[in-house]
Amino acid sequence: MTINNNRVEGIYNLMETLVWTELERIVQTERDDVCFCSLCKLDISAYALNRLPALYVSTQEGETRFTNLEMDKRVTGKVVEAIKHIAEHPHRANRTMTEYTVNELFDYIDK
Hints:
Blueprint: E1 3-4, E2 7-8, E3 12-13, H1 14-27, H2 38-49, E4 56-57, H3 60-66, H4 69-88, H5 102-110
Helix pairs in contact: 1-2, 1-4, 2-4
């Protein structure tokens, strides 16, 4: 096991892949009422990931174990929630993390 760029090689957060895959699936529906620019897609992903548990895996067996219908429903629900939230508050990422107060960050996460 080695650490490269502050990441442990050989393990990763499967939830990131599940969220991004679901978001890309939804983007393919070509909804005109929502912005899916790269900035909004990152905001949507971050919003959903902050509300889902991390799922670190190191093997294909681990991926298979956590990829199931119940997890898919949970991911889809959070991605849809994130899309709605970011559509109402677009381009939040234009503001850097250092420009937020601690209370603003907790308020944002708690919504």
